[in-house]
Amino acid sequence: MTAKQNIPLYQMVKQHILTLIDSKQWQEGERLPSENELVAELSVSRMTVNRALRELVAANRVERISGVGTFVAQAKVQSHPLEIQNIAEEIHARGHQHSCKVEAVEQIRASAETALSFDLAPGSRLFYSQIVHYESDMAIQVEERYVLPQFAPDYLQVDFNQQTSNQYLMGLNKQLSQVEQVVQAAMPSKAIAKDLQMDANEPCLLLLRRTWVEQKVVTSSKLHHPASRYQFGSRYQPS
Amino acid sequence: MTAKQNIPLYQMVKQHILTLIDSKQWQEGERLPSENELVAELSVSRMTVNRALRELVAANRVERISGVGTFVAQAKVQSHPLEIQNIAEEIHARGHQHSCKVEAVEQIRASAETALSFDLAPGSRLFYSQIVHYESDMAIQVEERYVLPQFAPDYLQVDFNQQTSNQYLMGLNKQLSQVEQVVQAAMPSKAIAKDLQMDANEPCLLLLRRTWVEQKVVTSSKLHHPASRYQFGSRYQPS
DNA sequence: CAGTGGTCTAGACCACGTT
DNA sequence: ACGTGGTCTAGACCACTGG
Q: Which of A126, A133, B133, B218 would disulfide-bridge B151, Cβ 3.0–4.6 Å?
């Protein structure tokens, strides 16, 4: 475990273990090496191995039993209900036509609120896009997205009529360390209400999503949906 | 920080900090003492303080900026729809007091809409309960629930001040075959707005949940939350 | 520059389950 | 008795921020 960049050691330990699990070299339910064995094998301290394993427990990839050992967790029971991929696919899956209108793609300076969500200083440079999505000519989502420039340097040159911003960002194939999703209800601003052709007194359903690489927030988006035309749903079989 | 039971030190550090946040002695956005200050103050090692603070970040209670400091996070009640079993536990987990007011527990005849959601004939007999839940005296949820009588014959006799309706229904230990959850935004009716002490023009965040046994819908609930005091959220590590 | 958080180490003691 | 994970310490070096 000596190949070092700026990546923390415990991250590398996690990656190492995940690689072995994902490649099936360590099967479901199988016992992992003990902390002390990993210490010897990877030449790191036990605290570092311990942290890596604790985070893998939190991520539901391994289970630990005190006095017994560490085991590969059962594969995903249920995918996250709010695992919204990209709006275009979703619309096509319903057999409808997707189209969109790009209202802005530009470099901006972070407002106080935006800066806070990125843990950056106000005034920092960010990329910003605002796109309205239509399902068979009915406005269904306004997508506001902020992107850290070093995460996607060519963001401003992308043609978002060819692919959605989400598709483009996923295509970069960077390893996200964390995803946060929040669902809220709120009254729309006048501009949003107009974009979505909403009735007066109709609320919005909001999905706020942030993604991290390492310790840094790399994207932050706010998806506005008209309450009368959109909802989040899931249906599944409980275990 | 010497009062020890079998409780880990980092847990006590977390509790200590949460107590000060919840009692408003440390306000939202306010800066916490640095790690070194906490080390001196609580007589524990820095690794222990660090672990406590890292877990508070994961729990969304504080935010940290490297080179700057640690700050009390904005408080917004938040939960993950899939994980919610009962509202009382959720509130207790946040260290707050749960109370409720039972507004109705009765047998009713299904309206056209309710009948549809159960796939029954309009006018069928169903049990119905309406309960307002409070988090530290702040109204946070109106729970409307319809129950198929043969699923829970004694539903009308349960004391919902003793246990949540959800707790009671789970306690029946029937094997659910399916669960459906839908999230919507909507303006509240006047009655709901009054129960939740909501401002005019404030929308509701709705969670609709239906459960099945075999091929039959056995419960259908509608949970109303004030948009300004409640949101659904999740933060996780993608693997 | 001094202060902050982020990480890492090499020890240590403990409670627990298995042998 | 032994190995396991769970916790804790007292140091240390680093990158970053602020004045």
A: B218
